[in-house]
Every structure is written in C-alpha cells, then in structure tokens.
C-alpha cells in the first residue's frame, strides 16, 4: 500500500495541539477524541517505560473513580471505555471496567452500545463469568426493530457467547435466517457457525436450515454458510457427499465470473469463496473416486483460469494443487498440478518459494520424482538465509530420508538444531531426528554404530529434558533387543559404553537428566562388554554423579540401579561401600531404600548374581508367584501342630461366625457354603494362585523391587512384557529386510559381473551442491532403494531421462578402477576450456593449492569374493565435503548426476567410450600421467550443455588400489572461454 | 484465524483481536514474543513464520505491521490478501489511512474489522458491502448522536 502517507509519531504533539486549538468549541466529539489524544500524546512524549507505567496507573485510577461515580453519564462512560481499551492494549489491567462495559452495552444508546459491545468483546473471553450478565442484553437487542441493534447483537454472539446460554438465543437467531436483510441472515449464519464450533450438539437439529443458507440468493450468506460446511465435512465427509454437485456448480459459477463484480478482488472473482470451495471439495473427494470424478472438470478449469500474475491467483492455485493431490488421482490433473508446484518452487518471490516447498512436502509421498526435478532448488533453499525456508526444506528432506541419505539429512538437521533456541522447534526437530534414527531402525538407516551412537548423543544433549520420553525409551529398547546379528549388536552396545565413558570423563559438563539416565542404564547393563576385571572406574564416575547436587533424585535412582548391577560383577569395591554408607543415612527415603537393598544383596553374592544376571534385560524372569518352594516348610510346621494358613476372607468369615451368637441374620453365609473352606493346605493355595500365573504382580514385585524403581518403570517385567509380545510380531515383519538386502547384494553382483566397466561420466561443473544433491536424493525413485524402504510407491523413471551413468561392456576381468572427479573451485556457470585444466594438471608440480583427496576403500563384502580382482569403490570421500559423499555401492550412484565408479581397463576404455558416446562430441583419450603401476587418462565428452571429463585411473599392477590422491592445481590456471 | 495483531515499528501494539479464548497472561506473552520475532526479521524475508504450532502471516504497511495467526492447513497467501483487503477497507474509510488514524480512532478500526472478519472467518468479501454496513451504522449513530446533542442543549 504505497499510497499510505507515513506520518511519524514525532509529528504527534504538534498535530494534537492543532486539533485542540481548532476543535475546542466544535463540540463533544472533539473533546472526546482529545482526551484519548491527550493520553496517547502523553505516552508518546515519555521516554522510559517507568514513566509510562506511572502515567497509566494514574490514568487508570482516574478512570476508576470516574466509572464508579454515580454522576457519570453514559456518554462519559463511553469515552472512558475507549481509554480503558487503550490502556489494556498497552498491557495494563483494566478489569475494574469490565462490568461497566456490560452496563454500557445494556443501557446506552446506539453509539454507546456499540462501544460497550466492542469493549466487552475485547475485554472478556468466552469463558468469563461476567459474560452471563450480557445474555439479557443480547436477547433484548436480537428482538429489537432497529437493524443496527440486531447486527450488533449478532456480531457479539459470533465472537463470544457463553456456551450454556446458547438455548436462550438460539430460536431468535434461527428466525433471523429468514430475515429480509441479507446482512442479518449472514451474521445469523456466522453466529450459528460459532455455536457449531463451541457446542455442535445444540445446532444439530437445524442442519437443514444450513442448506437453505447455502442456496441463499445473496452471495455473502452463501459464503458464510461455507464456513459451517467446511467444519462439518471435515468432521464427517461421508454425510455430505450429496452436496458435491452443488459445491461444484457454485465453484463453476464463481470461476466463470457469474458473481456480481463487487465480489471481485483485483479482478479475480471471489477468491475467498473459491478457496473455501476448493478446500471443501478436497475433503469430499478424498479416497472417493466417484465423488472425485464430479470435480475433475472444475478443477481443471480453476487451474487454467488462474493465470494472472497476482498473489491471489497463486493463493487459488496453491489450494487447487492441494485439492488435486487430496482427491482420487487423475494423472492429467496431477501433471498440471506438478507444473504449478514447479512454478512456485522456481519463483523468485520468497513467499511463493516457501509455499512451493510446502507443497512438495505433502506431495512427496505420492510423487518422489518431483523432488528430484527440483533438487537443485531444494539444495539452495537448504542454505537459505531465512530460517523459515530452511526449516521447511528440512521438513521436506525428513520425508525423503532413506538409508543412503540419512547421514547428510541428519547432519543438516543437527546444524539447524544447534542454531535454534526456541523450545518448540527443538522438541519438534529432535523428535524428527530420533524418529529417523530410532523408530525406523527396523531396517536401520544408520550407516554404522559410531555414527548412530554419536548422533544419538547429540540428540540427547541438545534435546535434553524437553524431548518426548519415548525417545530415550525406544533407544534403550533398541539397544537391548538389538537387530538380527548378535555380534553387531554387541559392538553397538560396546560402542555406546565407550562413548558414554568418554563423555563422563569431560569435566564440568552438565548433561540433561534424561541423557544421564540413558547412560546409567547402558553402563549398568553393558559395561561387562569392556571385559575389564573390575568396574571400579565406572563406579567412580557414577559415584561422582550421585554426589552431584544438580542431578535429580529420579536420575539418582537410575544411577544407583546401575551401581547395583555393576556391584554384582565386582568382587569388592570401596566405592560401593562408601556409597552404601552415605546413602543409608540419606534423607531421601527412596535412595535409602535402594542403599539398604544394595547392602543386603552384597551379603549374598549368589542371590545377587541370580537376581541381576548379565545381559538378560530382554528375558523374562521366572517367578514362582505361588511360593511353592515353601511347601516343605509349611508341611513341617503343620506336622508340628501349627495352625494352617487361612486366607483373608476365610478369617473374616470365621470372625463373623464367632459373633453369630447374637447375629441371626446370615450376612456372609455364602462363604461357608463355598468350596473355599476345603482349600486350606498350602498345596491348594499354591494351586489356586498358580492360576493367576506368572503375571501375578505381587510375586513379581518381591523380587523386582531389588531392581530399583527407575528401571522398573521402563524395563521392569510387568511393563515390558506386553511390549515384548508386540515385538515378536515386529520381528517377523522385519524378516523380509535381510532378504531384501541379500537380493540387493545379488543384484549388486550381477551388476558387477555384467558391467565390469562402468564409464564414469561427469557433469561439467561438479559443484558441491550437486554432490549434496546426489547424496540427498540418492535412492529416491530407484527401484532397489524403494524396495529397501519398503515403500509401495510406484517407481517412476522420469528422473532418468538424462542418464549420466553409462554402462559399457567389457569381457576383461582384470579391471582397474577408475574414479572420476572434477572439481572447480569457481562456481560460476561459465564453460571452462579444459585444455588449460589438463595442462594445469600436468604442470602442477608439487604445488598444492587446491587439495582434494579421494579415498577409495575396498569393500570387503562377500558379494565381491567371487571377483577378487574387481576393485570396488565403496567409499569415496571428497575431503571438502566428506559427509556428502558417503553412499556406497554402485546403485547408490545411479540417480546421482555427479559421479559414478567405473571399472574399465585402459585398453578397452577408449573403444567403449567411443562406442557409448559416439553420438556426442568427444576428444581423444589423452594419457595425462603414468608410472609403472598406475596410469591416468583423461577424456572429454561434450553433451548437451555440459562437458564431461572422464579420468580413468588404471591399475597396471595386480595390487590393490588402497587410496588415490588427486590434486588439482590452482584455479588461476583455468581460463574461461565463452 | 486465531488472532490478529497490529503493531508499530517501535513494537507498540495498535490493535489486537483474539478469536480463541486465552488468558491475559498468555495474550501478553504471545504478543511480546511475536512482536520481537517479527520485528527482528529482515525486509526480504518470507512473510510467513512458523511459531509454536501456528503459522504467522505478517505484512508491513508503512510503519505498521499487520500480523495474523492461522493454523497449519490454512492458506498463507489468502491470509496475506485478507490483511491487504483490511488495509484497503481502512484506506477507503479514513481516506488514505495512516498509523495516526488507527491510533486515534482505533475503535473505528475495530468496527471495520468486525464487519470484515467475524469469529476468525471472513464474513464479507465484497468491499462495497463491508463499507455499506459501516456507513449504515455510522449514519444511524450520527443521527442519534445529533439528536441527543440537541436534546441536551
């Protein structure tokens, strides 16, 4: 709004003075505005917050005196209300005036009433008790013959109204639906909408009247009814399918410009109505092919019509795209919608870009290829200066996480996490990272143990105590239950133990309580994996934590549980003794209890060991709840004449029968006839209690109480058992995963056998961004990874339109590994004349300005044992962006544009290259440099708009290529030729 | 829409309308946090903000910031247009509106808002109809006002 004249507040005092001098005799109106003006001016003239407070407190006490004085006229009251509203807006309490606002609404004339209602709507909220006093006024005004009064009453009802009092006004408002004035009908509909929101049951009987409103001849009334329909359809879409036709017709009319011109907004017909209708259609057509078919035409037309380059058309387009993706899919529409999303994403306007990302985020599950099309834009957005854009991008990436890109995505998320301070964001993001890591670990996206544990450490440290309690629980469960491979599990646990020991070594670092709890559980449970004779070292650390005042008592319970577990493995420990001494006199009863338990357990090592077995956290403890082991003892006692045990109810019954002398009424006689009386022998009792079996909690607790409170909450038998049952199901479901990975390996083998030569092609400019892109979007849409993810999405190959990886045939078994990589330090889009580049390479001497190391490690996987000579590049790391390039195995490279490993002997390389790329311009194979074991050749291909430089490194010896260092000379040597 | 706030570049609140029941304490906290966050943003940045579980849509007109809170599934762009339409209405009513008009006549600004948005939803999308409703109320008021003034004198 450029035509707004910006007047600064400095002009205020002068303006006010003018006002005063001119407006003095002009009457009441000026004096009213000048009083507020005086207040406003007074406040703006002040410099400090303190002075402002003083002024307003004074003003408020003046006002308080005025409003309660009996001589105050309603007109003065109205003026006071305005000032009160102002004071309250500045953040001061004006609650003494609330009751006067209600009075004003009740007693004033139109002008005063209007201000009174406004004050009420601003001061009170719908649960405020004073609001009840307003009901009578509203009822009276609804019955008024004055339209303005009715309007005011309806307006206040649509804003705040006490739920319990709805019946008092409902019939009056229903009547208003038939009012001759459209403004009254419209406001009545909105009042009913409000009622539907706060008390849906109360307006259920008038649903039929809403239909009338939908067909109202006035557009405003119809539009108002759409709000109600949107809510109702959202709650229950199946009940309103019959209205689909009507909504479609209305939308057609709106889009076709059949509404009065008044409703146009920047020459777009009624955008608000269009959007509301689109949202309703989206809800109606969800998972419903028949209903969706009714709306295809009008959606198509909406997409077509929205051409104007104005924000409001984008708003409609966005809603349209949303609807198209919500309803039963139609490929033609989806294609158009996808194009629209492209428009958003590629737009230079930041608002549209944000919405493009938002659209991608919800579309991604249906159509992962769309993200691939826009990958470069997404990468740019990842480093966008606006954190909102960044966050939305992360949200998008979160949805496409898979085994191959997890490290990069999690790293990006952690980076963002470290920058953000707002608790809400932290909780949200930590939840997402943990979700990727822990909840998905059925098919473990995490590449290795170290990474997994370290990332979890970061999550625990940052997320701290605000994160969802499920996160540490799931993490510990994961450690305890492990995966399919036992040795792998042990390594993971061992790594966790080691990592926590290192963390605890750091002085003066405070970890969140939840993290400490996880640490103490892991250390207690898995410290034995370290294979040390005595856990003295870790006990010292735990002891230190226990003596730390900043550790909460809940965490201390966890810590002492860990100590107890470790004590069972230690022969003797001074620290434990000290600890017992300290805590048996602790003021914390819980800690004292734990300390005594520990003390007694230590006196019976055998019991302790059986009670706290090593690595049995997943196993059920057999508990003899019937106490049958006491049978012998009981029999002996009985034989010696002891009284037999009587259950509680029996004793009571006997007590009753003893009193029977006076009691003639058979109160509890049912017992005496029951079979229970016969069950007096211990055996009988144990039989009876056996029925309740192992789940008997009492027996459980007796043994379990020694395992300490903190642990029992999560891992105690009774809490754990049902989860365990659930898990067995999970495991069977999880079984296909290893199979799949075997298949993958087979595919892998096949690929290696069949295509021993893979020629590396390279995009002209291998920017970091492309690397990032390749590592982020790897696996998206490729068949193998889709399998791995278990996603049912149909695979689309659109993104392969320009395959960058070419497979060439070669019968040679001895193959060298060629790794191609080009790197330009400049990121401009100019074309580099590569001759200079090559010259630079040759002449580089020993200068190392742009150092670049390529480490290729040999993958020692089983799949390759059959082909011992094939050197497989498993891990390529670019030193400049190490984490961005961690995909291993060839299929990982398929979708990536940047790089691919190839296996080709030098001799066949040229021919195969020529064969493959003959349709493109290419240069001769030039040997760049060589020695007796390795030779490096370079080869250029011009294709479309890019230049590929292929370097083939061939290994002439039979030795393993362990690592290769590629050094690229200074950037000055490159010359740009346009 | 959950609420609408108008505040100046100096962070002074000029108008507040809450469509969800909140305690005064919460309102103050939200206002303080939002004003801070929005004022800290650079002019080239996106007009949308994610804040708690809400979306904030804001736009600056001269020295005034208009700021709306919507739910996640609501349409951000159309909310921007709601703000714009409200500014248009103010502009038409006051005749080239400026911040001072809103400070000294904030109750009028509220009346206009109530004719445009009701209970957090768009009540009337036709500019003409909104202004007609306001004028009607104003006219009746004026009549009554003049009458009462005459009566007093």
From TrEMBL, chain A:
Which domain of life does this protein belong to? Eukaryota
Biased region (Polar residues) positions are: 890-901
Q: Does this UniProt record's set of keywords contain Oxidoreductase?
A: no
Q: Which Gene3D superfamilies match?
A: Leucine-rich Repeat Variant (1.25.10.10)
Q: What is the topology of this protein in the membrane according to its UniProt annotation?
A: Peripheral membrane protein
Show the Pfam families listed in the entry: Adaptin_N
Question: Residues in domain Clathrin/coatomer adaptor adaptin-like N-terminal?
Answer: 52-598
Q: Where in the cell is it found?
A: Golgi apparatus, trans-Golgi network membrane
Q: Which GO terms describe its biological process?
A: intracellular protein transport; vesicle-mediated transport
In terms of SUPFAM superfamilies, this protein maps to: ARM repeat
Q: Name one GO cellular component term.
A: AP-4 adaptor complex
UniProt key word Plastid: no
Keywords in UniProt for this one? Golgi apparatus, Membrane, Phosphoprotein, Protein transport, Transport
Q: Where are the stretches annotated Disordered?
A: 890-912
| Residues that span the membrane, as ranges | none
**What InterPro entries does this protein's entry cite?**
Adaptor_Complx_Large_Subunit, AP4_complex_esu, ARM-like, ARM-type_fold, Clathrin/coatomer_adapt-like_N
Function in brief: Component of the adaptor protein complex 4 (AP-4). Adaptor protein complexes are vesicle coat components involved both in vesicle formation and cargo selection. They control the vesicular transport of proteins in different trafficking pathways. AP-4 forms a non clathrin-associated coat on vesicles departing the trans-Golgi network (TGN) and may be involved in the targeting of proteins from the trans-Golgi network (TGN) to the endosomal-lysosomal system.
The record's subunit annotation is: Adaptor protein complex 4 (AP-4) is a heterotetramer composed of two large adaptins, a medium adaptin and a small adaptin.
Q: Which family does it belong to?
A: Belongs to the adaptor complexes large subunit family.
Q: What is this protein called?
A: AP-4 complex subunit epsilon
Automatic annotation (TrEMBL), chain B:
A single GO molecular function, which one? clathrin adaptor activity
**Gene Ontology CC:** AP-1 adaptor complex; clathrin-coated pit
Q: How does it sit in the membrane?
A: Peripheral membrane protein
Q: Which family does it belong to?
A: Belongs to the adaptor complexes small subunit family.
Example of a GO biological process term = intracellular protein transport
Record-linked InterPro entries = AP1_sigma (IPR044733), AP_complex_ssu (IPR016635), AP_mu_sigma_su (IPR022775), Clathrin_sm-chain_CS (IPR000804), Longin-like_dom_sf (IPR011012)
UniProt keyword annotation of Transport present: yes
Gene3D superfamilies linked: 3.30.450.60
Q: Which UniProt keywords apply?
A: Coated pit, Cytoplasmic vesicle, Golgi apparatus, Membrane, Protein transport, Transport
Q: How does this chain assemble?
A: Adaptor protein complex 1 (AP-1) is a heterotetramer composed of two large adaptins (gamma-type subunit AP1G1 and beta-type subunit AP1B1), a medium adaptin (mu-type subunit AP1M1 or AP1M2) and a small adaptin (sigma-type subunit AP1S1 or AP1S2 or AP1S3). Binds to MUC1.
User: What gene is it encoded by?
Assistant: AP1S2
What residues does the AP complex mu/sigma subunit domain cover?
1-140
What function does the entry list?
Answer: Subunit of clathrin-associated adaptor protein complex 1 that plays a role in protein sorting in the late-Golgi/trans-Golgi network (TGN) and/or endosomes. The AP complexes mediate both the recruitment of clathrin to membranes and the recognition of sorting signals within the cytosolic tails of transmembrane cargo molecules.
Q: Pfam families in the record, alphabetically?
A: Clat_adaptor_s
The compartments listed are: Cytoplasmic vesicle membrane; Golgi apparatus; Membrane, Clathrin-coated pit
Q: What is this protein called?
A: AP complex subunit sigma
What main location does UniProt list?
membrane
């Amino acid at each position: 709004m450029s035509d707004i004249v910006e007047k600064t507040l400095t002009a205020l005092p002068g303006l006010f003075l003018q006002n005063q001098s001119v407006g003095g005799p002009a009457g009441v109106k000026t004096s009213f505005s000048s009083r507020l003006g005086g207040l406003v001016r007074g406040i703006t003239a002040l410099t400090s917050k303190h002075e402002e407070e003083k002024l307003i407190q004074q003003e408020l006490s003046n006002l308080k005196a005025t409003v309660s004085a009996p001589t105050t006229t309603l007109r003065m009251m109205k003026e006071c209300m305005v000032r009160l509203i102002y004071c309250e807006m500045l953040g001061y309490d004006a609650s003494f005036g609330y009751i006067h606002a209600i009075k004003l609404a009740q007693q004033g004339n139109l002008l005063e009433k209007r201000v009174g209602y406004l004050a009420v709507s601003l001061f009170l909220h719908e649960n405020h008790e004073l609001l009840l006093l307003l009901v009578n006024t509203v009822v009276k005004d609804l019955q008024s013959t004055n339209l303005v009064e009715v309007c005011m009453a309806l307006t206040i009802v649509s804003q705040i109204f006490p739920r319990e009092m709805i019946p008092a006004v409902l019939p009056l408002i229903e009547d208003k639906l038939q009012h001759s004035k459209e403004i009254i009908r419209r406001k009545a509909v909105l009042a009913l909408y409000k009622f539907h929101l706060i008390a849906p049951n109360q307006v259920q009987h008038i649903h039929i009247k809403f239909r009338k409103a939908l067909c109202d001849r006035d557009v405003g009334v119809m539009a108002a009814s759409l709000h109600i329909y949107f809510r109702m359809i959202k709650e229950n879409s199946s009940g309103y399918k019959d209205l689909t036709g009507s909504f479609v017709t209305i939308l057609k009319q709106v889009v076709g410009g059949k509404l009065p011109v008044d409703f146009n907004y920047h020459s777009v017909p009624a955008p608000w109505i269009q959007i509301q209708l689109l949202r309703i259609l989206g809800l109606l057509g969800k998972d419903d092919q028949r209903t969706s078919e009714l709306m295809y035409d009008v959606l198509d037309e909406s997409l077509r019509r929205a051409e104007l380059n104005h924000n409001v058309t984008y708003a409609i387009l966005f809603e349209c795209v949303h609807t198209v993706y919500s309803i039963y899919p139609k490929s033609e529409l989806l294609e158009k919608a996808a194009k629209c999303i492209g428009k958003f994403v590629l737009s230079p306007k930041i608002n549209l870009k944000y919405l493009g990302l938002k659209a991608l985020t919800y579309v991604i599950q249906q159509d992962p290829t769309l993200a691939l099309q826009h990958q470069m834009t997404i990468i740019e957005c990842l480093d966008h200066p606006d954190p909102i854009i960044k966050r939305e991008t992360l949200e998008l990436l979160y949805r496409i996480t898979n085994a191959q890109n997890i490290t990069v995505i999690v790293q990006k998320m952690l980076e963002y996490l470290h920058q953000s301070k707002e608790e809400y964001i932290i909780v949200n993001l930590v939840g997402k990272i943990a979700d990727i890591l822990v909840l998905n670990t059925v098919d473990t996206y995490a590449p290795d143990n170290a990474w997994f544990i370290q990332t979890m450490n970061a999550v625990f440290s940052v997320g701290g105590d605000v994160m969802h309690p499920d996160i540490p629980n799931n993490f510990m469960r994961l450690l305890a239950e492990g995966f399919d491979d036992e040795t792998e599990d042990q390594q993971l646990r061992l790594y966790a133990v080691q990592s926590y020991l290192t963390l605890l070594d750091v002085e003066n670092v405070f970890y969140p309580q939840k993290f400490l709890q996880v640490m103490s559980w892991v250390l207690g449970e898995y410290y034995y994996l370290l294979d040390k004779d005595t856990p003295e070292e870790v006990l010292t650390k735990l002891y230190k934590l226990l003596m730390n005042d900043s550790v909460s008592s809940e965490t201390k319970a966890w810590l002492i549980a860990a100590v107890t577990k470790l004590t069972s493995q230690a022969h003797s420990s001074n620290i434990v003794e000290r600890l017992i001494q300290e805590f048996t006199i602790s003021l914390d009863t819980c800690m004292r209890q734990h300390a005594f338990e520990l003390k007694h357990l230590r006196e019976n090592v055998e019991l302790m060991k059986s009670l706290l077995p090593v690595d049995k956290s997943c196993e059920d403890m057999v508990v003899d709840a019937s106490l049958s082991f006491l049978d012998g003892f009981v029999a002996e006692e009985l034989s010696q004449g002891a009284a037999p045990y009587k259950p509680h109810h029996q004793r009571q019954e006997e007590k009753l029968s003893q009193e029977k002398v006076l009691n003639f009424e058979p109160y509890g006689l049912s017992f005496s006839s029951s079979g229970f009386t016969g069950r007096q022998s211990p055996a009988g009792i144990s039989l009876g209690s056996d029925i309740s079996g192992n789940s008997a909690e009492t027996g459980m607790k007796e043994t379990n109480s020694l395992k300490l409170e903190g642990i029992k909450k999560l891992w105690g038998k009774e809490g754990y058992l049902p989860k365990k049952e659930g898990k067995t199901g999970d495991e069977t479901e999880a079984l296909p995963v290893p199979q799949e990975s075997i298949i993958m390996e087979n595919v892998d083998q096949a690929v290696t056998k069949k295509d021993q030569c893979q020629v590396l092609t390279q995009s002209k400019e291998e920017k970091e961004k492309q690397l990032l892109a390749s590592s982020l979007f790897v696996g998206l849409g490729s068949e193998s990874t889709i399998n791995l993810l278990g996603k049912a999405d149909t695979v689309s190959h659109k993104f392969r339109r320009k395959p960058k990886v070419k497979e060439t045939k070669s019968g040679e078994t001895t193959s060298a590994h060629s790794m191609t990589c080009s790197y330009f330090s400049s990121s401009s889009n100019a074309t580099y004349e590569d001759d200079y580049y090559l010259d630079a390479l040759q002449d580089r001497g020993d200068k190392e300005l742009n150092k670049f190391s390529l480490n290729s490690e040999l993958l020692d996987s089983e799949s390759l044992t059959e082909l011992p000579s094939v050197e497989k590049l498993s891990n390529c790391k670019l030193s400049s962006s190490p984490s961005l390039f961690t995909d291993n195995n060839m299929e990982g490279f398929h979708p990536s544009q940047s790089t691919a490993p190839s296996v080709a002997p030098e001799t066949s390389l040229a021919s195969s290259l020529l064969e493959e790329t003959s349709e493109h311009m290419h240069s001769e194979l030039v040997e760049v440099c060589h020695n007796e074991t390795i030779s490096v050749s370079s080869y250029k291909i011009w294709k479309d708009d890019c230049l590929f430089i292929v370097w083939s490194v061939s290994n002439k010896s039979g030795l393993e290529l362990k690592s290769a260092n590629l050094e690229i000379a200074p950037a000055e040597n490159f010359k740009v030729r346009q | 829409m959950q609420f609408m706030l108008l505040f100046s570049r100096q962070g002074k609140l000029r108008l507040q309308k809450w469509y969800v029941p909140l305690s005064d304490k919460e309102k103050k906290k939200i206002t303080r946090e939002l004003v801070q966050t929005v004022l800290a943003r650079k002019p080239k940045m996106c007009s949308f903000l994610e804040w708690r579980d809400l979306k904030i849509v804001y736009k600056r007109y001269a020295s005034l910031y208009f700021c709306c809170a919507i739910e996640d599934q609501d349409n951000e762009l159309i909310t921007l247009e709601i703000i714009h339409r409200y500014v248009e209405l103010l502009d038409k009513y006051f005749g080239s509106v400026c911040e001072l008009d809103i400070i000294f006549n904030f109750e009028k600004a509220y009346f206009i808002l109530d004719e445009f948005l009701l209970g957090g939803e768009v009540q009337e999308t036709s500019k003409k109809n909104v202004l007609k409703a306001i004028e009607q109320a104003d006219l009746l008021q004026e009549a009554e006002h003049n009458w009462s003034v005459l009566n007093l004198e």
